[in-house]
Design brief:
Blueprint lengths: L5 E4 L7 E4 L8 E10 L2 E10 L12 E7 L5 H12 L7 H14 L8 E7 L3 E6 L2 E2 L6 H12 L6 H7 L5
Antiparallel strand pairs: 1-2, 3-4, 4-5, 5-6, 6-7, 7-8
Length: 171
């Protein structure tokens, strides 16, 4: 779980402001965890938090996914692969695909071993993203959010065993 870190910030002309490390899993319970491997190589550890044990309607409840990377990857490549996996679930028009790819590339930094990239699904609103506990800009699109989290949680996922572990459907 992410630790809480408090700090004070002084901005010219503004009062001191308190801040804390963002907690994408705040108020949620760990449901499941798994490892993503490709040809035996560990790519990342992944954890799912939710208010309740998700079922077939997992997208109707707030939830958070945290990926802790085991190797270096380019953020732009993470975004491209995400779009490929989102398209497994349903057809995505080219305008939406281009917009979402650009928005993901703007948000997803290059990662190295030990880095955490997290997302919090907000039903009907969109997705809040976090990098190593720091908040990134919200992507305010409910369809994007459902398809993005569906990469791991939908029945059309390319990794059904990983999905089962995250949703607590298998040991």
């Amino acid at each position: 779980m992410l630790s809480r870190r408090h700090c004070l910030i002084a901005l010219p002309g503004l009062a001191w402001q308190a801040c804390a490390e963002a907690k994408p899993d705040a108020g949620l319970t760990l449901v499941g965890q798994a490892q993503m491997r490709w040809f035996g190589l560990l790519i990342y550890d992944i954890r799912l938090w939710s208010e309740r044990k998700p079922a077939r309607d997992w997208w109707t409840a707030p939830l958070a996914l945290e990926l802790e990377y085991a190797r270096s990857l380019k953020g732009s490549e993470i975004a491209k692969r995400s779009l490929v996996e989102m398209r497994r679930q349903q057809l995505i028009d080219e305008a939406s695909a281009a917009r979402w790819l650009t928005q993901m590339q703007e948000r997803f930094p290059d990662v190295k071993a030990g880095d955490r990239l997290s997302g919090r699904h907000l039903p009907g609103e969109g997705t809040d993203f976090f990098f190593n506990g720091s908040a990134l800009p919200r992507l305010a699109d409910p369809l994007f959010s459902r398809l993005f989290f569906g990469i791991w949680l939908s029945e059309q996922t390319s990794e059904p065993q990983l999905r089962a572990k995250l949703l607590g459907l298998s040991a």
